[in-house]
Design goal:
The structure is a homodimer of 513-residue chains. Chain A is an alpha/beta fold. Chain A contains 19 helices and 18 strands.
């Protein structure tokens, strides 16, 4: 058996069923093996940044790692920004990166690059496979590494001759270790702190945000102790909406976050890291919590935070409580387009179990708060801050959560990074509604420039201006086979949104704001 | 003076006059300094792969390094594939990569990444600046490094506080060392070999390919000794066309290249590296030259190969000769679209001093041979083999060679990687004619798959198929403000080509093949 075949068989045997791919010459044996073996859905993407972002979205929704198929060093390089985002989201993923044949590599042919060097900063596991005989075992270890809590990126570098050589052996799936549990001492210590009744908050991150039972435990704790429930500004996946536990997200602007967390005496980290600013600003602190606030770790990111929350709620003898009623579901908004009106219209119209991918950057800061009264839905964000995540995430999420409508909320500048993902949505007929917030500028940078304290001149303004020429998203989407339309009022937006939910396949709405 | 201002003043003082930019928050002080200082043309690109490819194209045509402005680690990551290409093309370039403030970095905020680790494999020089006071000097050293023969990529990582702190000092330009010269012994040894009259070839690469005087020396040598004149399959820039020295490029397919170089006894490397296959194939050699062929180095890549050629021609007492007449300029071809017909039409219609950017991959293999009778023009290629170079290269070349028509020959699959470059062409009103060879497949991969020796099945074929849905390049270009039209015959192609040459600004022709 060729190495490539042993790889495909091992991956499918380990439960890896989808491969997002942009193959090149050195991956042809893997492609041929996909053909022969079956059992792996191959999804073609026209740029590697789409490949890695889609694998991230798929895993966030399905809970299972996808494979990526990438071509040599530069192909991996194109995937890195969304691998960075996936790493920050603790997404399990198995990258298969083709490379020069082992004996050809020393000749330093044009595409030869430092593949391992580029892979390492985003990967929890990197291995260059050296023989067809070991490839199956290496792949099983990679899947195991990817699935080990809290989830990580495993990169397998596959020299062409390792793929084409005979002697491949299929390996069995390796057991995935259970996440470590928080010690009873930790639970008691946090309970002790919370019983004091001083201003406290639980900051939740990771799998608990997508786990209704864990959020219910957190809500018991909050209700019994008065502690606030917080989530980071950017989260991999939050289950929310009507009937679910409401969470407050830490604000992005440093001043707003400092105000939000002012007065806290205890911040309990539940799978979360201490909140810090996305960026530093002259004269402003890096930490977003008060100096006098004590950090307590209930569960580290790799620990079972859901169990820790349940144990803490029991330790506190906190009664079960029903989440508060978010009030009546709003009606679609009318008139001029505003962030509040968009949020209201989304809340009014989104179907049950929608998956929201939020890369709306500056325009969408209020969307989260404005959509809690919507039917139950999931909220996915760009966690690592590298823009260009949204269109790919939505693409992968639709494959990871079939039957659910994905709604991608996209800033125009961010969507341009990886617009090629729209083509894959058309090809795979994915139920994705993309909303482009077309402000024709890098609005967040205008805000950031204002923080610099100088009046921007022509050069600076030009560098933030996407309006010359204006991007025409209806044509861009149409050019990739995605039907699209433009809306300039909230009524038109609502009509298009509702239309898109009634049909199968992708649709794009350019919202001129 | 703020660090950022000292940086801009130092760069312009060192002759860096263009900055291709996709800034982010941490670069706002650099942007503000661009405003204040003047003298640096800032060109906005909507994706970092366009930034780095455009800087490559600019430097290839102008001979001067451009600066790039990139945002943190993931922004650099998006630029890496085209930095890889630029490194292989030995292009001088100065990257300014913003980063977290020095004191904020330990907090590992979401966008924090291993910026140095990603930069190193593509850079001849990497430095993270540590203080505003040293920034000017560090920048001068970076420009010097970029300009040192044979040209390299210098990456300066700029923490936000280094940019915003006071204490910046403008540094003067540092002298660029002259390229080392080949020793008289080398010249005599190569002359000795060539006088034997055995089958020999000179393989030229680097600056000599863009240097008419150097090519004239090479042609004297070839005429006097019978040696063939070769260039690698992929070259940064070749000056060619009517009245110029014709060069034979080494073929891409291994079998064809082996046949082409069969029988050679001596291969003289002139700024070139030994020719090897782009990829390895089972049972085929890595080296493209015969085992019995002796390699002789006339000039290493960093040496002055033009001088070495002149000295060798003199040593051989080779008379000056006029390049051969390539025959009459062809008429535009008619009828069904074919590679030969496209080449003929290009040769017939391209204006004097056109700049051809060739990323036509499989369809364009014969374009080079078919255009030698065209007026004098330059030929630029994707040197590192990482597709997605062409649209950005053309964008930068048009800025580096104002007044000359740039013609980008683009495979559809490759053009999709960095299509965002079209927007910058529209914004800057660049004289670029892009021709998309729309075969709606990864044709080169179908060829490569055929080399694997199996009959491709549905999965494999799907992974090479860009036709479902079809990309509509007229709409894609229009969506970014570039006028475009489709051609399905050679007559229509010729008409659109001629039209595009008569107007200013960009135009795109989708050639359905």
């Amino acid at each position: 058996m060729k190495g490539a075949e042993s790889l495909v068989r091992t991956l499918t045997g380990c439960g890896v069923e989808v491969c997002f791919a942009n193959p090149g010459t050195s991956e042809m044996h893997f492609v041929a093996a996909l053909d022969r073996v079956g059992g792996m859905r191959a999804v073609l993407c026209l740029f590697e940044g789409v490949v890695s972002g889609a694998a991230d979205g798929y895993a966030r929704m399905s809970g299972r790692p996808a494979a990526t198929l990438l071509h040599c060093g530069p192909g991996l390089a194109n995937a890195l920004a969304n691998l960075h985002n996936a790493r920050r989201a603790r997404t399990p993923m198995v990258n298969i990166v083709g490379d020069q044949a082992t004996y050809h590599r020393p000749f330093d042919a044009p595409l030869t690059a430092d593949t391992e060097g580029w892979a390492r900063p985003v990967s929890g596991f990197v291995r260059t496979v050296t023989s067809a005989a070991s490839l199956g075992r290496d792949a099983a270890v990679a899947v195991q590494a990817a699935r080990t809590s809290p989830g990580q990126i495993a990169t397998l570098i596959l020299p062409a001759d390792v793929a084409w050589n005979e002697g491949g052996e299929v390996a069995e799936a390796l057991p995935v270790p259970s996440p470590p549990t928080a010690s009873p001492d930790r639970i008691r210590q946090v309970a002790h702190v919370l019983r004091r009744g001083e201003p406290a908050a639980l900051l939740l991150d990771g799998a608990v945000l997508a786990d209704e039972a864990a959020l219910a435990s957190a809500y018991r704790i909050a209700s019994a102790t008065g502690a606030r429930l917080l989530a980071p500004f950017s989260c991999a996946r939050i289950v929310r909406g009507r009937g679910r536990v409401p969470l407050e997200r830490v604000h992005y602007p440093v001043d707003a976050a400092l105000k939000q967390l002012a007065g806290l005496r205890y911040l309990i980290l539940v799978g979360a890291r201490p909140p810090v600013g996305f960026f530093a600003y002259p004269g402003k602190p890096s930490r977003l919590y008060p100096e006098e606030c004590t950090l307590e770790v209930l569960a580290r990111p790799e620990q079972d935070a859901g169990l820790a929350l349940a144990n803490l709620a029991d330790e506190l003898e906190a009664p079960r409580v029903t989440p508060p009623d978010p009030g009546p579901r709003p009606e679609p908004a009318r008139g001029r387009i505003s962030p509040e009106g968009v949020a209201q219209t989304l809340a009014a119209l989104m179907p049950e179990a929608a998956v929201i991918v939020d890369e709306s950057i500056s325009f969408g800061r209020g969307f989260f708060a404005g959509t809690h009264a919507a039917p139950p839905h999931d909220w996915l964000q760009i966690v690592g801050g590298a823009i260009g995540a949204g269109v790919p995430l939505a693409t992968g999420a639709a494959i990871g959560a079939p039957g659910r409508r994905v709604i991608a909320l996209e800033a125009d500048g961010s969507a341009m990074y990886t617009l090629q993902g729209l083509w894959t949505q058309a090809r795979e007929r994915l139920d994705v509604t993309t909303v482009i917030f077309s402000n024709r500028k890098y609005a967040i940078l205008l805000y950031e420039l204002s923080q610099v304290g100088t009046n921007p001149g022509r050069t600076a303004l030009d560098l933030m201006d996407l309006g010359n020429p204006e991007l025409d998203w209806v044509r861009l989407a149409g050019g990739m086979g995605v039907e699209a339309a433009r809306a300039e009022t909230l009524e038109a937006f609502g009509d298009l949104l509702a239309q898109s939910f009634r049909r199968r396949g992708p649709f794009l709405i350019e919202l001129v704001i």
